């Protein structure tokens, strides 16, 4: 069996051969004037007019040799175009050079016209060819693809060449984010950019990445939210509607639903609250589903839901009480730990607290909730940045979107009381000082900004987990280039 390195050596020799023949293996520009999509869509008209056009792209298949052959070309715009080469139309020198020097994987352009084969298939009759880029390594077998998952993620460029479904997924991902962007822009939100490097991480409970800033000689953190505390500073500054779609980073474990760096949108609206936000969220999710997938009904891990159904309301405190006989407002660490052990949940005894324990118990129950729905009734101690409920000060005005057993988005009435905010930051800081490195850091400068006056507001955030969720695939599968361990 010929090795990849042997094939590479042979192709390097072909590069030399091309140069000797006066054929540039890597020309600067292309003359392509018709995409595959345009050729396929306009085939009938091109066939009737016999207009000459230039198509091209990557060769994925070569069949035949000598006097005639068929070459399949893809350019990323449509299905392949089947190109027909013959001695009669190309001439002896051109067709011999082609079969002698050209391989699958090469980029090429063909000039010619629409043509119907003897078997009645649509094709492109080649009159001339021109190499655009010579490939030195062979493509994997198109039928088998790349079977090893690690290799497929590591060489995603090959996976996309061979797997049209995954190429299409990347297109849907673009539509997903642009649907969100358009939805917000049409509602007079302005898109902003906030710092990725921070002195103090804020906006979430998560373990950050730490790096050193040489110019300022200080350690900084990669942000763990899409600028939550910065965007709320902009509310204070008089910008009533802002949003950011950006990359965030969390130095945590990996799972099908979690990654260390991913894209998230967060948006904030002054003079609104979480009740109004629920309605807006329903509209947004339905719009995404219709624009990206043309439907609103989905199934994930055996649980089916339809975004156009009535959204259920799940009460966090009531669910925990019914499931574990624990009052989340009165529970002690001992109560929580006892139920965690009964439920067979793994936990860290060193950092266990009421907050962490209740959260672990909830995550086990959550898997059984189909949705679509909103989870409400979250205890104050589980949310540092939301306003207390106007009906029950023990809970906050926060909701989480529940779809097929997962939390896919979170919104709340933003806390704008600087005294309350400072107290909650101090509680979180004490947890952090006790060893909980996911607890939030106190941000005195943010509290100072709030003291100048912050309007009541609604805020919401959702990550690319929603996209992977609707795709029915893991988060890593839905990223173009997931983080991989460096090869030794």
Describe this entry's structure for a reader:
The protein folds into two domains: 4-139, Beta Barrel (OB fold (Dihydrolipoamide Acetyltransferase, E2P)), CATH 2.40.50; 160-311 and 371-471, 2-Layer Sandwich (BirA Bifunctional Protein, domain 2), CATH 3.30.930. 35% of the residues lie in helices and 25% in strands. It is built from 16 helices and 20 strands. The chain has helices spanning 4-20, 36-41, 43-49, 87-90, 92-101, 149-154, 156-162, 164-185, 228-237, 274-293, 316-324, 333-343, 354-366, 418-433, 444-450, 465-471, and strands spanning 53-65, 68-74, 81-86, 107-116, 122-133, 190-191, 197-198, 210-213, 218-222, 241-249, 261-270, 297-300, 303-306, 312-315, 373-376, 378-379, 395-396, 398-403, 406-413, 457-463. Helix 7 crosses helix 8 (164-185), helix 8 runs antiparallel to helix 10 and helix 14 (418-433) packs antiparallel against helix 15 (444-450).
């Amino acid at each position: 069996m010929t090795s990849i390195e042997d094939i590479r050596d042979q192709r390097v020799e072909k590069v030399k051969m091309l140069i000797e023949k006066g054929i540039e293996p890597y020309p600067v520009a292309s003359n392509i004037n018709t995409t595959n999509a345009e050729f396929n869509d306009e085939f009938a008209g091109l066939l009737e007019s016999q207009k000459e056009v230039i198509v091209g792209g990557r060769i994925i298949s070569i069949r035949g040799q000598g006097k005639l052959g068929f070459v399949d070309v893809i350019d990323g715009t449509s299905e392949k175009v089947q190109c027909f080469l013959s001695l009669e139309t190309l001439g002896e020198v051109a067709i011999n050079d082609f079969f002698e020097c050209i391989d699958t994987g090469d980029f090429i352009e063909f000039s010619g016209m629409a043509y119907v084969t003897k078997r009645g298939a649509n094709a492109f009759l080649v009159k001339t060819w021109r190499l655009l880029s010579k490939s030195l390594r062979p493509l994997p077998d198109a039928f088998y693809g790349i079977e090893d998952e690690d290799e497929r993620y590591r060489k995603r460029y090959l996976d996309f060449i061979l797997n049209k479904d995954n190429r299409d997924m990347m297109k849907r991902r673009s539509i997903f984010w642009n649907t969100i962007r358009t939805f917000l822009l049409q509602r007079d939100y302005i898109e902003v950019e906030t710092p990725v490097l921070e002195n103090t991480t804020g906006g979430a409970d998560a373990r950050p990445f730490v790096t050193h800033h040489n110019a300022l000689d200080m350690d900084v953190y990669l942000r763990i939210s899409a600028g939550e505390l910065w965007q709320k500073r902009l509310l204070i500054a008089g910008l009533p509607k802002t949003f950011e779609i950006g990359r965030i980073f969390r130095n945590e474990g990996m799972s099908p639903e979690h990654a260390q760096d991913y894209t998230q949108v967060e948006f904030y609206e002054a003079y609104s609250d979480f009740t109004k936000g629920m309605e807006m969220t329903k509209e947004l999710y339905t719009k995404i589903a219709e624009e990206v997938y043309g439907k609103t009904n989905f199934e994930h891990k055996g649980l089916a839901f339809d975004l156009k159904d009535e959204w259920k309301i799940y009460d966090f405190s009531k669910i925990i009480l019914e499931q574990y006989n624990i009052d989340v407002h009165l529970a002690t660490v001992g109560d929580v730990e006892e139920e965690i052990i009964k439920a067979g949940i793994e936990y860290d005894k060193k950092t266990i607290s009421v907050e962490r324990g209740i959260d672990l118990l909830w995550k086990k129950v959550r898997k059984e909730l189909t949705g679509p729905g909103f989870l409400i009734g979250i205890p104050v101690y589980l949310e540092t940045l939301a306003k207390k409920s106007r009906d029950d000060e023990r809970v906050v005005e926060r909701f989480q979107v529940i779809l097929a057993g997962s939390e896919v988005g979170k919104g709340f009435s933003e806390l704008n009381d600087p005294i309350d905010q400072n107290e909650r930051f101090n509680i979180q800081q004490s947890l952090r000082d006790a060893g909980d490195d996911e607890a939030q850091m106190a941000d005195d400068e943010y509290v100072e900004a709030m003291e100048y006056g912050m309007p009541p507001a609604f805020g919401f955030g959702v990550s690319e987990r929603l996209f992977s969720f609707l795709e029915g695939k893991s988060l890593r599968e839905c990223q173009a280039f997931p983080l991989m361990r460096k090869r030794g």
